[in-house]
Design a protein that fits this description.
Length: about 150
């Protein structure tokens, strides 16, 4: 599954303590930080573009930051047997010019493009999206994963 990551926008990753998740980046990883020390098994490949992660416990929800030579990526890592993802490919993305309706939410409509989502927030209310508190009128959201808005999955 491809993740199209917007600058400053966190994406949701579902992991399962039974299986590893492999994440491939476009450029070499220079630094990453995930949870508390000892909570996850991690391995970075020889070419430094692939990160393999396996949780050592169940019931977790933690931020992860990955810095590559060209970009910085933010994730919210959550345990889920139902939504578990075994392989992700992370690509950088920019806002699109055209969007089509995707879903209606109590926080505003979500619109979709080929590479990202846009949540229209006309009142600029504080909304927690994928673990980040956001309040812009137009909130760009990385595409590829499900969207966690105020505890609800969309």
């Amino acid at each position: 599954m491809s993740y199209f990551m917007m600058a400053g926008a966190a994406a949701l990753i579902f992991m399962n303590a039974e299986y590893p998740t492999t994440i491939k980046f476009e450029e070499p990883i220079e630094f990453y930080s995930l949870g508390n020390q000892g909570d996850f098994f991690t391995h970075k490949s020889n070419n430094s573009k692939i990160l393999v992660i396996k949780p050592k416990k169940i019931k977790f929800k933690t931020p992860m930051v990955v810095i590559t030579k060209k970009a910085s990526y933010q994730f919210l890592v959550v345990d889920s047997v139902r939504h578990y993802q075994s392989y992700l490919e992370v690509k950088s993305s920019m806002p699109s010019r055209t969007y089509r309706p995707y879903k209606s939410t109590p926080y505003g409509p979500i619109k979709e493009s080929d590479y990202n989502f846009l949540l229209v927030n006309p009142k600029k209310k504080n909304i927690k999206i994928n673990g980040q508190l956001r309040s812009e009128k137009e909130i760009y959201i990385s595409k590829g994963s499900k969207i966690l808005i105020e505890g609800e999955i969309y």
